[in-house]
């Protein structure tokens, strides 16, 4: 069992930056892949970025490539999403998630239904 708590959201102007954190409690955090997702009230939850347990593999949706960076610190049971050059369309509730992964590639990580553990979310609002 893993409990996840996100923080770091807020209101920022377009072009600004935020760093989201996801702190995990429970066992075996270092064995889990971590994903960041977001959901606008009018849209389905979508994959933003993912990182393998070993940190060797990272994946990003096209719209955030070059602007967002996912990382993790297994010694601190934490994962992060650094967001730069934020745009109004990045506004959403951001969730971190954890799961054991037995596949690889973007489609593997982007499958929302395969993620087992979820945080409660943190709101990111980007004003124009």
Main sheet characteristics: 7 strands, mixed
- Rg over CA atoms, rounded to whole Å, is 13 Å
Number of strands: 11
Helix content: under 10%
Question: Which regions have little confidence, pLDDT < 50, spanning 5+ residues?
Answer: none
What is the strand content? over 45%
Question: What does the average pLDDT come to?
Answer: 96
The helix/strand order is EEEEEEEEEHEE
Which class do the helix and strand fractions yield? mainly beta
Number of helices: 1
Distance from N terminus to C terminus (CA atoms, Å) equals 40 Å
The backbone outline, from C-alpha atoms, is globular
Task: Label this structure with key terms.
128 residues; mainly beta; 7-stranded mixed β-sheet; 4-stranded antiparallel β-sheet; 11 strands; 49% strand; globular
Report on the structure:
The chain is mostly beta strands and 128 residues long. Helices cover 4% and strands 49% of the residues. It contains 1 helix and 11 strands; from the N terminus they run βββββββββαββ. The chain has one helix spanning 106-110; strands at residues 2-7, 10-13, 18-26, 33-39, 46-51, 58-60, 68-73, 78-83, 92-99, 117-118, 122-127. The strands form 2 sheets. Strands 2, 4, 5, 6, 9, 10 and 11 form a 7-stranded mixed beta sheet that branches. A 4-stranded antiparallel beta sheet has the order 1-3-8-7, with no helix packed on it. The chain is globular. The chain starts with a strand and ends with a strand.
Short description:
With 128 residues, the chain is mainly beta.
Show the helix and strand layout:
Blueprint lengths: L1 E6 L2 E4 L4 E9 L6 E7 L6 E6 L6 E3 L7 E6 L4 E6 L8 E8 L6 H5 L6 E2 L3 E6 L1
Parallel strand pairs: 2-11
Antiparallel strand pairs: 1-3, 3-8, 4-5, 4-9, 5-6, 7-8, 9-10, 9-11
């Amino acid at each position: 069992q893993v409990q996840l708590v996100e923080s770091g959201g807020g209101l920022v102007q377009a072009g600004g930056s935020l760093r989201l954190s996801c702190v995990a409690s429970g066992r075996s955090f270092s064995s889990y892949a971590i994903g960041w997702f977001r959901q606008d009230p009018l849209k389905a939850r979508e994959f933003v970025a993912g990182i393998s347990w070993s940190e060797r593999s990272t994946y990003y949706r096209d719209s955030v490539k070059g602007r967002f960076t996912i990382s993790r610190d297994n010694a601190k049971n934490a994962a992060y999403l650094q967001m730069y050059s934020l745009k109004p369309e990045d506004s959403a509730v951001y969730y971190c998630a954890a799961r054991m992964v037995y596949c690889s590639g973007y489609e593997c990580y982007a499958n929302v239904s395969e993620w087992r553990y979820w945080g409660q979310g943190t709101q990111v609002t980007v004003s124009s």
